[in-house]
Design goal:
The protein is α+β, with helices and mostly antiparallel strands and 347 residues long. The chain contains ten helices and 13 strands. The radius of gyration is 21 Å and the shape is globular.
């Protein structure tokens, strides 16, 4: 008897109806959501709309062997939420398109959506549409997120000025450390558990920062509403690369003080346990989804006071320099060029 090709367990239209029933919600300003040829939104005249999109491919951005389906969805949503956070925007609406291989079951897709919506509902984001297709390879996940700011009031990469101070939120390098804990080199074949001499609490923290990062939406809105930041970008590829994007857009240089980089106790402990330098993790590690922003030096006390009052962790790590200065790092009074060690597609 001839071998028959495996048939997918997924049926397109029942899947779409099930996703709509479980995850779609009505939201202010939404005239028509899932169920028609296009969603309809009623905007206001005093609003700027911000639109961001990400394409995530199995084997490149995620792997079902090392990550739960819900975590994959959660991280995917946070990546887009972080883009809007960097603009100081309020997230509003979400569209999701999928190309699904035969190897996945409907339960996998529902778990991905559960993670997506768990992240988005923290910010009252409504799912309003998308598309589904078959894939001959792995899962492809495309997310489009829409957000708003008041007209003429948003953060951009191009606003930094010479003399501005450079800040980051949170701590850097945690996600990369968590990812490396999960690699086969650091885990046993039999149990899949880490063989690194690192406490369980530190391992849980770092792995949690990798699988469940936090987009700094509230911090971005604060910086925008109070008009404190002159420029901003989210750290999705790594400080060494994303700082360059901001400097290129603003036509400036920068000096980073390595001794001021905020590194968590868990990341420092990981460095001691593995012989890795935590500063290198902080420079190279993307997917922490912290914010990098610049601000006038006269705002330093205001930023410190308001961040402390709101419970935000914000650290000054450097200064914007003239373009001819380039992008340099300093430590112990010595300067040298900052190498690009962050993630880059096709490199």
């Amino acid at each position: 008897m001839a071998n028959r090709k495996a048939k997918s367990a997924i049926q397109e239209f029942p899947l779409i109806r099930g996703l709509s029933r479980r995850f779609a919600r009505h939201a202010p300003g939404l005239v028509q959501g899932i169920g028609d040829d296009a969603a309809v939104i009623e905007p206001t005249e005093q609003t700027w709309w911000h639109v961001t999109t990400d394409l995530l491919a199995e084997g490149i951005h995620f792997n079902f062997k090392s990550a739960a389906s819900e975590s994959i969805g959660y991280r995917a949503a946070m990546a887009n939420l972080s883009d809007l956070a960097a603009m100081g925007a309020t997230p509003r609406y979400l569209l999701i398109s999928l190309a699904i291989p035969k190897t996945l079951r409907p339960s996998h897709i529902f778990e991905v959506y559960t993670g997506l919506m768990k992240a988005c509902r923290q910010h009252r984001v409504a799912l309003i549409g998308g598309d589904t297709s078959a894939s001959k390879t792995g899962l492809f996940l495309n997310i489009t997120l829409l957000g708003t700011t008041p007209t003429q009031q948003a953060l951009f990469r191009h606003g930094a000025h010479v003399g501005d101070l450079i800040y980051v939120t949170g701590t850097l390098g945690d996600s990369l450390a968590g990812l490396r804990i999960l690699t086969p080199l650091h885990t046993t074949r039999r149990t899949g558990k880490s063989r690194i001499a690192l406490s369980r609490s530190h391992q849980r923290f770092l792995i949690g920062r990798h699988f469940h990062p936090t987009a700094r939406v509230a911090e971005g809105q604060w910086l925008n509403q109070e008009r404190l930041a002159s420029a901003a970008i989210d750290l999705s590829d790594g400080l060494s690369g994303d700082l360059r994007h901001l400097c290129t857009a603003s036509r400036v240089g920068a000096e980073i003080d390595l001794e001021q980089l905020p590194i968590s106790a868990a990341c420092r402990a990981y460095g001691r346990a593995t012989g890795r330098v935590p500063i290198q993790l902080a420079l190279a590690g993307g997917e922490d989804y912290e914010l990098l922003f610049t601000a006038a030096p006269g705002s330093q006390d205001q930023i410190a006071h308001q961040a402390r009052t709101r419970g935000y962790r914000v650290t000054c790590i450097g200064t914007i320099r003239p373009k001819r200065f380039g992008i340099q790092m300093s430590s112990g009074g010595r300067r040298k060029p900052l190498p690009v060690t962050s993630y880059e597609h096709f490199h």
